[in-house]
Amino acid sequence: MSIIFDKNTQCFHLSNSRISYIIRLAAGKYPLHLYWGRRVRTISEDMMVRRSPWTEDRFSLNETAMDYLPQECPTFGSDLRQGMIHVIHENGMHALILEYESHRVMEGKPQLAGLPSARGEGAESLLLTLRDKVSGVAVELCYTIYEDVDIIARSVRVINGGKTPIVLDRVLSACVDFERSDFNLITLSGAWTRERQLYTRPLVPGDQGTSSARGASSVQTSPFMALLSPNATETSGEVYGFALCYSGGFEASVHVDQHFLARAQIGIQPFNFSWTLEPGEGFQAPEAYLCYSANGLGGMSRNFHAHIQNHITTGKFAHSERPILINNWEATYFNFDEEKLLKLARVARRAGIDLFVLDDGWFGHRDDANSSLGDWFDDTRKLPGGLAGLSDKIHKLGMKFGLWIEPEMISVDSELYKAHPDWCIHVPGYPRLEYRDQLVLDLSRQEIRDYVVEVIVAALRRGNVDYVKWDMNRFINMWGSPALPASRQQEQPHRHILGVYDIMRRIIAQFPNVLFESCAGGGGRFDLGMMCYMPQAWCSDDTDAWMRCRIQHSTSLVFPPSTIGAHVSAVPNHQTGRTAPLSTRAAVAMAGTYGYELDLTKLPRKEIEEIRVLNKRLHEIQPILLYGTYYRLLSPYEGNEAAWISVTGDKREAVATHVYAQAFPNMRDKLLRLTGLNPDLTYRDTDSGRTYGGDELMYHGIPLKKPWGDYMSQQFHLIAID
Ligand code: DGJ
């Protein structure tokens, strides 16, 4: 891995043994994007001027150039298409022409102030400083290349180096101009209980992409997109993936211009964003990850997975086994008392479950969703001994104790609201529109953040917790903060997210031994920003096994199983009414951080025994499932089956899972081709005791039984015997 600046060609070449990213300073001052893809030794000088309507000694940003130039950091002013940065000067006019000022190569990578960002083990970074000579505004572009993953991390910082204030009303994090546009675009869109559904379509001239203006990455959209070459598949062909390390509103877009060239960009949603910079101040935009794969979508995913596991997730649990949990939400919803919880916990313990999680409804007087958020004191009607009493009893059962919190919110029916009716995000004079009966605390304000940190830390200490589920159940539609002047109101969405990150950082830092899981009304903040603080996230409130096959398949485009919260729930399923066998519900949930979410006290003894056996098996295979190399085998978006496999780094062990949605009459036994194994090894299937060659399993397949009934599954644990 290296970053080299060639003075003769004026090129920066970032490369590892597989990929190259090349930037050229045209006329010694304008950074142009030359190349991103499979590693090349160099780009010839002919190619360097291919889009340049000028000669080196007579460079000008004339009209044609502004339409053509593959700029690394296009701005309104130097480019006729949507740029990355838009600056409004004190006179209300906009212009910015950035020229090279200096560069620096450093080992590792800088951490972004106030924002989550990847670590820089085994990485090198290029810091390129550009400046607008007229206004003095500087832009620092940061590029990081890693040795172990084919990912370039990019971020942008704007510094007002002038003498008068400026307003930024667009600062994206990355822009890549392609020499072509014959791509298929993948984005993930959905809804509550239908998160991150996979959508693919060819690019067309004009604008396309995905975005969120909901104040969160959201259940409807995801801060990710991928461009697939026309022949790209799951296993082959070129794919360019883009993901943003940010949990607020975002935009990921592709513009196809008049010459059928594609420009891809990703960053903070420009809608309702602006930021004033006084002289000397800087603005840091979030980090974006650009992933190149020559091995199809699967290659892209494995790079994102390794990046998340090696450079994003942090803390004690980032690489360790996760406890099997029971969560009382779908077992009791708000209707519980200590007795009921303990009954559930006792059965759970007998079934070999490690961690009891108390979900929503333990505080204030919260018997449904319309009260008490903000009142983080124990409801002694339900818990006579408070959190401390319950936690103590759970610990005495030999289980760990976990707790649900939703620190960012406030209910109108709460003591907190009575004391501080102005602490919520609101616009004076307008109705405070509730969503799931709640309002959002204005976390752009320091005193509110301090209060939240204090009461939440106290609750977690009181409960002596081992695990926390950090929920966030509403989006934001009306922004307003009395703490900001009129000219800065559009800073609030980003300031609020910085505030969310601030309280997360401060709270989590006090509990290094506690496992944190993020959640947002299901998977409404399943993004890389959250992953920097909490190593796992609740994937969806949809626990239906077949729907989960779809949601987890597309979530795995970016996220590894170790980040995907997945539970076995009751049948008929509470979201779809479907009934899937316990074995299938478990096999699907095992593709994530595993748990249960049902009333075990209502299950027959036989099923509890089945659960105990499943849990024992999971403890044996969980390291493979969570940290093995993950391959999608069959897509539930394409037919009646889903399948995936996780293989250990040394290829000596693997777990493969296959699910049929529906059974049809007159079906036949068939073969499932596996992947990622060592063709020269012989593997034993631990259940059947049968042995197979790795080559046979990959090129011929493992026999599958035909389904008898809907939602049948088979799981194979394969161990090399030679
Ligand atoms: C939404 C979460 O996704 C659920 O699992 C549950 O915790 C509820 N919130 C509780 O209000």
Oligomer: single chain
- CATH fold-level name of the largest domain: Beta-galactosidase, Chain A, domain 5
DSSP helix count?
Answer: 14
Number of domains: 3
How would you state the average pLDDT, rounded? 95
Distance between the termini: 35 Å
Give the beta-strand count: 38
From the helix content, strand content and strand pairing, which structural class follows?
Answer: alpha+beta
Bound molecules: (2R,3S,4R,5S)-2-(hydroxymethyl)piperidine-3,4,5-triol
- Beta content comes to 25-35%
> Mind summarizing the main beta sheet?
10 strands, antiparallel
**Shape annotation:** globular
CATH superfamily of the largest domain: alpha-galactosidase from lactobacil brevis
Q: Using the coordinates above, name the CATH class of the largest domain.
A: Mainly Beta
Contiguous low-pLDDT stretches (5 residues minimum) are none
